[in-house]
Amino acid sequence: MASNANLTAARQSFVTHLECSMTGERYEADTLHGLSAVGRPLLVRYDLDGVRGAMTKDVLSRRPADLWKYRELLPVRSPDNIVSLGEQETPLVTLDRVGAKRGARAPIVKDEGRLPTGSFKARGLVMAVSMAKALGVQTIAMPTNGNAGAAAAAYATRAGIEMVVLCPDDTPEINVREIAAQGARVYRVNGLIDDCGAIVGAACKANGWFDFSTLKEPYRIEGKKTMGLELAEQLGWEMPDAIFYPTGGGTGLIGMWKAFDELEALGFIGAERPRMYAVQAEGCAPMVRAFEAGVEHADRWEDAHTVAAGIRVPKAVGDFLILRAVRDSGGAALAVSDAALLAAVDEAAGDGLLLCPEGGATLAAYDRALDAGKVGRDERVVLFNCATGLKYPMPDKSRTIDRHAAIDFASL
Ligand SMILES: *Cc1c(COP(=O)(O)O)cnc(C)c1O
C-alpha cells in the first residue's frame, strides 16, 4: 500500500467549514465536533471551485482505484493521518438470472462486501478514525449492530486509538468476536442499538471519550459518500435510474445524495438524479412509516426485530435527511419481510453472489417496486450489498458421506 500515491502524495483537501444540516449554522473545520447546537448532524463543506481546478475526471481516471482517489473532496488534510487497510473500489456485479427471470434488465449489485472488515462500514469508519487521529482523539466509544463496530475497531487499533464498543446482546456472534479480535473492548447490552447509544453517550460524558455513534461525528458521511462518487465514475458519470439502499442510520444514503450534489457543482454530472429507495425490514421500518405518513421526522419503532441486523435501527438522528433525499429524488421508502429478504439472498446465490440479509432486502424491495410499477423493466437499477454474506449464519444444506461404507456414486 505504501506504493499507492493516493495515500502518500501531498494533495490539498478543500474543506472550508462544517454546517448544521438543520439550521445551516457554520462550524470551524479542523476542530473536534459532535452534533450541532440543535442536536443534528454536521455536514462538511468544501471550496468546490478549488476542487474543480485540482480534481478533473481525467486526473481521477489515472489514480489508483480506491476511495482515497477523491482526496480533494475528503476531509483528511495530511497523508500522515490516513489510516488505511486498502479501501479498494468495489465491483459492480450484474444479477443476470435474476433479471432474465423477471424479463428485466439485470439489476447491478455494488458489492461492498469486498472492503476491509467485510462491510461498507469501512468507508465511513476509515474517514472518521483518520480524522479522530488528526484531531488527537485518544479513546472512542460507539454503539453498533456489528459491522460498524468491527470496522471502527480495526481502524482505531491501527491508529493507536483506544476503542470501546457496545452492542445488543443478540448481535451476530461473528461481529462480537471480530470486534474483540481487532483490539476493542466489546460489551453486550440487553437492549437495542439506541439503548447502547444512550449508555455510550453517558460513558463519553463521564470518561471524556469521543462519541462515534452514527452521524454524531461529521466524517462518517464523508467516507460513505465515496459510494456515490465511485458509482458515478464506474458508470461513466451517468446516473442509474434507481438505487435501492438498505437503510438503518442512513449514513450511506445521505452521503451518496451529498456526493451527487457535489458532483453536479463540479460539473461532473447534470441535474439528473437516481430515484433513491430506502429499504427497511417490516419488523423495523420507522422511515417507511414516516414516508407514508408524509412527515419530516420518524418516531422510534418499538419492539424492533429482523434478521437483517444492520438495518435494525429503531431511531435515526438523520431521519429528516433520509426522508428528504428519498422524496426529492422521487423514490420511496419500502419495507420487506424477513422471509422475502432471505428468499432473495437464496435467489441471488443462484447468480453466484452471496448477499448479506440487508443486501437481500434490496433485491426483495426491487421486486416490490417492479410489481408496483415504480421501476421499469428496462431501467438501470443498482442494489447495494453492504456486507459479505460470509459474515452471517447460513442454513446447513450439506449431506454426509461415510468413507467406510460403499458409496453409490450415481446418487451423489
Ligand atoms: C450498517 C449497515 C446497513 C445500514 O447502513 P446505514 O448507512 O447506516 O443506513 C446496511 N447493511 C449492512 C450490512 C450494514 O452493516
TrEMBL record:
Superkingdom of the organism of origin: Bacteria
The enzyme's E.C. designation: 4.2.3.1
Keywords: Lyase, Pyridoxal phosphate
Top EC class for this record: lyase
GO molecular function: threonine synthase activity
Pfam short name (any one): PALP
Entry keyword annotation includes Phosphoprotein: no
Protein name: Threonine synthase
Source organism per UniProt: Sphingomonas donggukensis
Species lineage: Bacteria, Pseudomonadati, Pseudomonadota, Alphaproteobacteria, Sphingomonadales
